[in-house]
Write a structure and sequence with these properties.
This protein has 10 helices and 4 strands; from the N terminus they run αααααββααααββα. It has one domain (2-221). Residues 1-20 have low confidence and may be disordered. By secondary structure, it is an alpha+beta fold.
Length: 227
């Protein structure tokens, strides 16, 4: 399951990099690389960006919103795979998207100073306090999913008719979503981790966050226990 998380994060990173992180102008101050990384992370996890970031990248507030919504949709897709939710309805996907919107308001990261590595690379320090909500949700699964398991205690999925299977899958999705949602009022974090995020100059003269490092950050921001 961790491999799926990495593939999903990389796909998300590539989408976002193509859409928003490139900066054509060669920054004259190292601080601008910190602005770029701060803006990238704020866009992905907060759905906002400050004026300095917009000026640096040439993006608009509408671009920021579109990329943010896309990132939430990508997370919803991963959530379904992680918890075995098949054929989610539009309503279910919408509920998952809104769940992530609330989760990420608690994302904790501090973007530090940037330093020059070489002519084509700068490194920006990012301190992350990983969200532990998925772990606490799983820790509560016996109680949280008791109603679902009781309802389907003597049921075999293979014996269900089409509409019965649809109801089964809907009930499972609702139970899992509620299991995680119930932890929103009890947010905890794992130990702080500090990583260096590279900003790389492309062949076209743009500067953008390393997709590999963005993937690393994404995996740290919200911790998923292996299952």
């Amino acid at each position: 399951m961790r491999t799926i998380r990495r593939v999903t994060a990389l796909a998300l990173a590539c989408l976002i990099l193509l859409g928003m992180t490139a900066c054509k102008a060669l920054p004259t101050k190292a601080e601008q690389f910190s602005i770029l990384v701060q803006g990238n992370l704020d866009e992905i996890y907060r759905g906002r960006a400050n004026a300095g970031y917009l000026k640096l990248t040439g993006n608009t507030a509408e671009d920021v919103t579109a990329n943010y919504e896309n990132s939430l949709e990508q997370e919803a897709t991963f959530f379904c795979g992680y918890y075995g939710i098949t054929n989610p309805s539009d309503q279910t996907r919408s509920e998952i998207v809104e769940l992530y919107r609330k989760i990420y308001t608690n994302a904790s990261y501090i973007v530090g100073k940037s330093k020059r590595v070489d002519g084509n690379t700068y490194a920006v320090s990012v301190e992350i306090q990983p969200l532990n909500i998925m772990q606490t949700a799983i820790d509560s699964h016996h109680e949280a999913l008791a109603g679902f398991y009781e309802k389907y205690r003597d049921v075999s999925k293979e014996d269900l008719s089409g509409w019965e299977l649809t109801a089964f899958e809907r009930d499972w999705a609702n139970a899992v979503i509620e299991m995680v949602r119930a932890q929103l009022g009890h947010i905890t974090y794992r130990d702080n981790v500090t990583v260096d995020v590279r900003v790389l100059r492309t062949e076209d003269g743009f500067w953008q966050m390393s997709s590999e490092d963005l993937q690393t950050v994404d995996e740290l921001i919200l911790y998923y226990p292996a299952n």
